[in-house]
Every structure is written in C-alpha cells, then in structure tokens.
Write a structure and sequence with these properties.
- With 220 residues, the protein is an alpha+beta fold.
- The chain is 29% helix and 8% strand.
- It is built from six helices and six strands.
- The protein has helices at 2-6, 10-26, 119-132, 181-193, 199-208, 213-216, and strands at 52-53, 75-77, 80-82, 91-92, 143-146, 162-165.
- The strands form three sheets. The chain has a two-stranded parallel ribbon with strand order 1-4. It has a two-stranded antiparallel sheet with strand order 2-3. A two-stranded antiparallel sheet has the order 5-6.
- Strand 2 (75-77) and strand 3 (80-82) form a beta hairpin.
C-alpha cells in the first residue's frame, strides 16, 4: 500500500483537490433549475438572482403539487409576513414581456381576469400550501397570493409563485383578506405602465422583499 501511494505524483493530488472544490461550487442550484416542489433555490431571496419562468396562461389549469408539509417557513419584516424563498422564489409568465406591455398587463380593459386560475383549482392548492407552510390560522383571513402578482407578469399557476399569505399584524378577524402587499403591487404596476421602472426591475424588487420594493425603486 505504501508503494501505491508513492506512485501518485503530487500534481495529481493537487488536481483532485481542486476538482473537489470546483464541484462543490457548481453544485449550487438556481431557481431556473428547480425540478419540483422538493427543489430549492440557493441564497437569500431576490438579491439580483434569476427568476424562474413558468408555463404561462393555460386554457385549463390543473392543481399543482406543493412543497412537502411543514417544509416552508415564514419570515417577518417589521411584523409583516414574507414568503420562504426556498419554497416560493417566484416565477414569471413567458406571455408578459417589456415589449408587449400595452397588449398584456397595461392594456385597457384589464388582463388578470383572463389568466387567473379558477377558484376550484386555487382552493385545493391553498389547502395544500397551508400545510407546506404549517399555517393553522383562519383560511378566510389568509390570501393565496401570487408573489409576483398577475398585474406584474407573474405566472398564474406555478407553485413557485404562490403562497398562503397570513393576515397583516393588527388585522381584525372577520374582515376577510386585506394585505398591505396588494397596494404595493398596484403602485408597481402603475409605475411599469407609465415607464417609470422596467418590468424586470419591478419583478426583482417584489421577490427580494415586497416591504421595501417601493423604496428600492425610489417610488416612495
């Protein structure tokens, strides 16, 4: 055994060590490589990372598989609930681009109602996703939310773009869904359609942290 070890030149050992380090760095996954609810995106939320692209609007939507029960964990910023970036990194629709804003999300007459999945589909997904996040509160007070909203070109039914969003702090029971994220999305949509910010910038800001999206883009 000693003679066998002496036959391995030092340069070969160095190469093997370098190869090992390289394989570790290349093993980090990205959102676009996500193969299903069990896959995770590396790193912190947003921070300039690539956003996955979903299948876009469908004529008939199917109930999507959700991350494993209890595998997702809420974060909080000034008391406001944020999604788990490993479970809900966001996904954009290939049907909405900077070049076709006037015929999609910025068109007169609206866009979202024509691409939104049915309540039958989202109702089933909401229950499954609540289990993913271990959410045990009132379902009527929580929103099954598109992280990147439909009015910002978010994918309509990709599991990576949907999460059960708990009610805001101080929210009174029996008031239904009323989250502070919604007006942020509307302001971003207005800014995109007015040409004040790009679609990509708005999408990136919302997946990074919706509570800071407006200030990040100097819209506040």
């Amino acid at each position: 055994m000693r003679s066998a070890r002496r036959l391995i030149p030092p340069v070969v050992c160095a190469c093997l060590l370098l190869a090992g380090c390289k394989s570790t760095s290349l093993g980090t996954s990205t959102p676009s490589e996500s193969g299903g609810p069990g896959a995770t995106a590396s790193g912190a939320a947003g921070a300039g990372r690539a956003i996955a692209t979903g299948e876009g609007p469908q004529k008939h939507y199917a109930v999507q598989q959700q991350p494993a029960a209890g595998s997702c964990h809420y974060r909080y910023e000034n008391g406001e609930p944020l999604e788990d970036p490993k479970c809900t990194p966001g996904a954009i629709s290939p049907a909405v681009t900077q070049a076709n804003l006037t015929s999609t999300i910025c068109r007169k007459g609206g866009y979202t109602s024509g691409v939104r999945p049915s309540a039958y589909v989202t109702g089933k997904e909401k229950k499954l996703n609540a289990a993913s996040y271990d959410y045990t509160g009132s379902m009527s007070e929580a929103e099954y939310d598109h992280l990147i909203s439909l009015q910002l070109g978010g994918d309509p039914n990709d599991y990576r773009n949907l999460w059960v969003e708990p009610a805001d702090p101080g929210h009174k029971s029996s008031q239904g869904v009323n989250n502070k994220k919604d007006p942020v999305e509307t302001k971003l949509h207005t800014a995109v359609c007015a040409g004040r910010v790009t679609l990509a910038a708005a999408q990136q800001a919302i997946v990074t942290d919706w509570t800071t999206a407006l200030s990040r883009l100097h819209l506040q």
